[in-house]
Design a protein that fits this description.
The protein is α+β, with helices and mostly antiparallel strands and 159 residues long. It has a single domain, classed as 3-Layer(aba) Sandwich (Aminopeptidase). The chain has 5 helices and 7 strands; from the N terminus they run βαααβββββαβα. α1 crosses α3 and α2 packs antiparallel against α3. The protein binds coenzyme A. The site of coenzyme A has 21 residues, from β6, α4 and α5.
């Protein structure tokens, strides 16, 4: 393959493909699945339902800061962003690249795209988080200039 995927703004017709990519990508690296692994299926909704809903939440927060990577008409990656204008903070809640497109710098390009978007919106700093079990995130984010500032433990119990 010679051409690189094109990064562009999200369009409503991308939603199905973005959710599909989310479910394909986040197996093994999402808090929702960890909770289900510990407690079982909750409220008759599985982790996939919960994770796909994050996309709706990201779009509701900031649809103008949701970007997709497209290759020959297919969505092969995306990045979501939210802005806290008062604090000057840009946050990246979700990022995914299709498995067959990984390891070629697309994740890094999407992050750089989001950082440029934050700069253009006048933000002063950016944040991103990753699970302890996500080795790629733990490698990629520091190499994109992020410094680790904290680790957090998550607890869950059944009611
Ligand atoms: C995280 C993700 C978006 C990265 O996409 P990508 O296109 O592969 O990213 P890049 O190719 O730009 O960079 C990947 C980096 O991770 C490195 N890497 C790959 N596998 C690795 C591993 N097992 N451990 C550590 N680093 C690894 C690559 O070498 C590369 O680093 P380099 O540029 O220094 O060589 C993609 O892996 C993905 O969708 N993962 C599943 C969903 C996810 O984890 N999203 C982020 C949630 S925080």
């Amino acid at each position: 393959m010679t051409t690189q995927p094109l990064i562009r703004s999200f369009k409503p017709t991308d939603l199905g493909a973005v959710k599909e990519l989310t479910l394909q990508s986040f197996e093994g690296v999402t808090l929702e699945q960890n909770v289900e692994g510990a407690l079982g299926v909750l409220h008759n909704r599985d982790w996939r339902w919960r994770k796909a809903r994050h996309i709706d939440e990201d779009l509701a927060s900031n649809s103008g800061g949701f970007f997709v990577a497209e290759q020959e008409g297919q969505i092969v990656g995306y990045i979501s962003t939210v802005l806290d204008r008062e604090a000057g903070k840009g946050r990246i809640p979700n990022l995914a690249v299709a498995p067959e497109f990984r390891g070629r710098g697309l994740g890094r390009r999407l992050i750089e795209w989001a950082l440029d978007y934050f700069r253009g919106e006048g933000m002063s700093y950016a944040m991103i988080e990753t699970m302890d079990q996500n080795e790629i995130g733990q490698h990629l984010y520091p190499s994109c200039g992020f410094v680790e500032v904290a680790r957090q433990a998550h607890f869950a119990r059944k009611l």
